[in-house]
Design a protein that fits this description.
mainly alpha, 6 helices, about 10% strand
Length: about 180
């Protein structure tokens, strides 16, 4: 077996899947809105990343999964509603953004469940041997980097969109008239 899921793993994965419902409520964009998901993903990385394997195609696997997470994060951030109301930036995940989150989180959970059973573990082992992936830790790293890429890029996209929205809604500075040559003596 590649990885035996603990009760803590189940609770974390299900909580992350359910997080989508919280994101569908409009909320004010605050430091907490940004830092809480980063703290969760930071905790997950520190809990699950023991070392980063670099043999065989382990790095390529991590890059492919991270790139997939980045793509999900970019589209999730672009599909999140960002607006100004009452002088504050407010955000809300749309149905499309929520669907992307459920698909990506669901994939990671399904992969963990599937690979923890003998038939799934055998498939992963054959795939790993065929494609020169050297350890189960390579899969853990790839899945964590996928989640990390998704969360960081989604939040970054939302923050950039919020800053652009604020910059566009600021009143323009008063224009300074150009000096008139006929006024000078």
């Amino acid at each position: 077996m590649l990885y035996d899921m603990t009760i803590t793993d189940w609770i974390i994965d299900i909580a992350l899947l359910l997080l989508v419902f919280r994101q569908m409520r409009e909320e004010r964009l605050t430091a907490r809105t940004i830092l809480l998901p980063l703290a969760v993903i930071g905790w997950a990385a520190s809990s699950y990343l023991r070392h980063i394997p670099t043999d065989g195609n382990d790095v390529a696997l991590a890059v492919v999964f991270a790139a997939t997470g980045i793509a999900f994060g970019l589209f999730g951030g672009l599909l999140t509603r960002v607006r100004r109301a009452g002088g504050h930036v407010r955000v809300r995940a749309t149905l499309g953004a929520a669907a992307l989150w459920v698909v990506s989180m669901g994939f990671r959970l399904a992969f963990a469940v599937w690979s923890s059973h003998p038939s799934g573990a055998a498939h992963v082992a054959r795939f790993s041997a065929t494609h020169h992936i050297t350890s189960g830790q390579a899969w853990v790293v790839a899945l964590i980097l996928m989640a990390f890429g998704e969360v960081v890029v989604r939040l970054g996209t939302i923050v950039v969109r919020a800053r652009l929205l604020v910059a566009r809604s600021r009143p323009a500075a008063p224009a300074v008239p150009a000096p008139r040559p006929d006024v000078y003596v």
